[in-house]
Amino acid sequence: MSDTPTPPATAREWHLLSRPVGWPEPENFELVEAEVRTPGEGQVLVRNEYLSVDPYMRGRMSAAKSYVAPYELGKAMQGGAVGEVVASNAEGISVGDHVLHFLGWREYAVVDAKSAVKVDPQAAPLSAYLGVLGMTGLTAYAGLLRTASFKEGDSVFVSGAAGAVGSQVGQIAKLKGASRVIGSAGSDEKVKLLTEEYGFDAAFNYKNGPVSEQLRAAAPDGVDVYFDNVGGDHLEAAIGSLNRDGRIAVCGAISVYNNTEPAPGPRNLARLIQTRGRIEGFLVGDHYDLQPQFVQEVGAWVRSGELKYRETVVEGIENNLEAFLGVLRGDNTGKMIVKL
């Protein structure tokens, strides 16, 4: 216990000051000094070591009703975090343990023990529990295997394929016997990464021409599964290339998150009648029952090197906002992580 640092009296955290309209601006946020509290009954104090920034956080900055409560103005924002317990008032979690929790965007957090998950820094790097072995990875796993009902021999198309979720979807599909995996990304460098490092059969830069044409060229025999991270023209293109009994799992729509006008919907939904296709949205929170199976299977692939992952690491709590804006711009390759 002696090598655990004494917590400071105050520490920094990010507050939402006003709700962004369109693209978030720095003046919507403030980095403030806050008191570091002593944990109450059933709580632990965590010194955060890595924080997660994710596209879904943009939705929480708006007041609109959604699947998760909006961030409160003038209070610390939330997000995935992993860190070391420096004080404990809870059974089953000791000082020195490492835990995963959802009180990110801050240096120190008082966390209810029942909402903290102990993680093993020996089994995988701590940052992996925010990405490849965390919520991001489970999103890929559940969306592909359960929502999209992936089966061996399927042809799979993934948008946002160089991102944290997309890159994992494509690799899991390959490891589980997909006949062909196609990805789209926003730069030639990312396209190269998909085919050379992640083992995709084909990939294209959506900025180089109409998505529907590029997808038809990359998947001449059509697609059985589309994992949608983007929405917009990608969703329309996927419907156009969908095979009989094709399935589309809708994970996100990053292309429209900052729009102030509604995005035009796919104009070819009638094609689902011919193909008997289905589109289904999903939330990772509904699939936590898969967590043990996911950690066992994907953890083994990570350890063996069969499943590769990238992280874009930004250092310092003061750069947390810039890291988040970078995710919306697509600056990251793989999971965007903030290291404290």
Keywords:
340 residues, seven-stranded mixed beta sheet
Helix and strand element order: EEEHEEEEHEHEHEHEHEHEHEHE
**Average residue-wise pLDDT:** 93
Number of strands: 15
Described by the principal axes of the CA atoms, the overall outline is globular
| Cα separation of the termini | 21 Å
What structural class do helix, strand and pairing data support? Answer: alpha/beta
Output the radius of gyration.
21 Å
Q: Can you give the helix content as a percent range? A: 25-40%
Q: Any low-confidence stretches, pLDDT <50, length ≥5?
A: none
Helix count equals 9
List the helices and strands and how they pair.
Elements lengths: L9 E7 L12 E7 L7 E10 L4 H4 L20 E8 L9 E4 L6 E5 L4 E3 L15 H13 L7 E4 L5 H12 L4 E6 L2 H9 L5 E4 L5 H8 L4 E6 L3 H10 E9 L20 H5 L2 E4 L9 H14 L6 E5 L4 H10 L5 E5 L1
Parallel strand pairs: 8-9, 8-11, 9-10, 11-12, 12-13, 14-15
Antiparallel strand pairs: 1-2, 3-4, 3-6, 3-15, 4-5, 5-7
Helix pairs in contact: 2-3, 5-6
